[in-house]
Fold this protein.
Amino acid sequence: MSLVEVSNISKSYGALAVLKDVSFAVERGEVVVLIGRSGSGKSTALRCLNGLEEIQAGTIKVGDYKVSDQGTDLRRLRQDVGIVFQHYNLFPHLSVERNITLALTVVKRMPLVEAKQVAARVLEQVGLSDKVNAYPEQLSGGQQQRVAIARSLAMSPKVMLFDEVTSALDPELKEEVLKVVENLAEQGMTMILVTHEMSFARQVADKVIFMHAGRVHESGPPEQLFGSPQTPELQQFVSTRVS
Amino acid sequence: MIREFTILEIRLLLEATTWTVLLSLIAFAGGGLVGAIVTLMRISRQAVIRRIAQVYILLFQGTPLLMQLFLVYFGLALYGYSVHPMVAAAIALTCYSSAFFAEIWRGTIETIPRPQWEGSASLGLTRSEQLRYVIIPQSIRLALPPTVGFAVQIIKNTSVTSLIGFTELTRSGQLINNVTFEPFLVFGCVAAIYFALCFPLSALSRYLERKLHVPR
Ligand SMILES: Nc1ncnc2c1ncn2[C@@H]1O[C@H](COP(=O)(O)OP(=O)(O)OP(=O)(O)O)[C@@H](O)[C@H]1O
Ligand SMILES: [Mg+2]
C-alpha cells in the first residue's frame, strides 16, 4: 500500500476549478516532484494534502488516515504531514529553538527538556546548531528556510511537502537549502516537492508529475519525463526550462 | 460669599483628581477585560457570535458616552434600581472603552499576515493555540501604542461623569468656580491637571510606536 494515495480529487475556488480529478500515489521513501507552469495547481495540491485547503471531491489517504472525511482530524493529519513554504513562515517573535519546540510541547505534549533535545538534533541535521538562540530576523533567508525545514522535521512527519522552498532565495543561498533537502531524501524521507529547479528535480526525484491546467498531465521517472516528454505541453515546458 | 482661590482650592482639585484617576483605571481595566472578550467574539468562527460582538461595538461606538451614562444612571433608576454614580460611571465607561479596545485589537490581530496562521496550523496547532502562542503575542506589540493612546481618551472622557453629580476633576472645578468666580484661574488649573495626566501617556504612546517600529 502506498503511503500517500490521492484519488480523483477536485478543488475549486468559487467558479474557478483549480484541481480536476487529480490522482497520484507516493510510496514510502519515495521523492515525488511536481512541476508545471505557474497557476497549474501545484501549491494547491500540496495544501490539500495537509488540510490547508478543503477538497470538493475525491479522497486523500496518508498512511491509514483518510483526509477527505467530513470532520477530518486535522491535528492528527498534520502530525503526519509536514509542510515547508516558500516564505518560511517562521514565528518572528520566537527564538529558533522555540520555533521548533512550540508544536512539540503544545501539540505533541512533549516535556520541554525533551523538546529541546529534539530541536538540537534537527538543527544539527540542517547545520544550524549555533543558531539555537537566534531570532528569525537575525538569519539569512537560506538559514531561515533551513530552520523551517528543521521545525517541520522535528514533528517526525511521515511525509514532508516542500513548496518552492528555494524560490525566494538568492542563487548563492539556494544551494545550502537544496543540500538539506537532498540529505533528507538520502535518509529515506518520503517527500513531495514543488520546484522550478529542474536540474535538482531530475537529480532527487524518483517520480516526476507534470501538472497542467489543474490536471496530472504526464508522470513518470525523471529520465522519461525530461528525456522524452510525450505531450506537446510538457515538451514545451521542458524545452524552455531545461538546458 | 466670594471665596479666594487659594492653595486650599488647589488641594480640593487634586483630591478630585484622584477620582478622575480612579475612574480612568476602572475604565481601563474593565474596558480591557470586556474588550478582550469582545475581541475574541469579534474574530470567532461562529457567525452569530461575530455578529453580536459587531453590534455591541457599533452600539457603543456609535452613541455618545454621555447617553450611555444617562441610560445607566437615570434609566435604571426608573426601574427602581438606584445606582450609585460611581457604579453607573464604572459600567458606562467600561462599556464605552471595551468597544474601542475591541475594535483596536481586532484590527491588530487582522494585520498579522496569513502565513503566520498557515505556518502554525500546519504544525497541528488548534485555533485557540494559534491565537495564544503565535497571533496574540505578535499583535500585542502592534496594539500597545494605540492602546496607550486610547487611555488618554478615557481620562478626558471621565469628565462626563460630572453630569450625574460625580465630583471628579471637572465637577470639582465647577464647584470651586461657583464660589470663587475665577474661571480662568480655576479652569486653567483643571486643564493643566488633565494635561499633566494625559501628556505622559501620549508621549509614551508615540515612543512605543517609534521603538516598536509600528507603522501608523
Ligand atoms: N486562495 C485562492 N483563491 C482563489 N484562487 C486561488 C487561490 N489560491 C490559488 N488560486 C488560483 O488557483 C490556481 C492554482 O494556483 P496554485 O497556487 O496552486 O498554482 P501553482 O501551480 O502553485 O503556481 P506557482 O508556480 O505560481 O506557485 C491559480 O489560478 C490561482 O490563481
Ligand atoms: Mg505555487
Q: What stands out?
A: The mean pLDDT of chain B is 93. Residues 7-211 of chain B form a domain with the MetI-like fold fold (CATH 1.10.3720.10). The two ends of chain B are 53 Å apart (CA to CA).
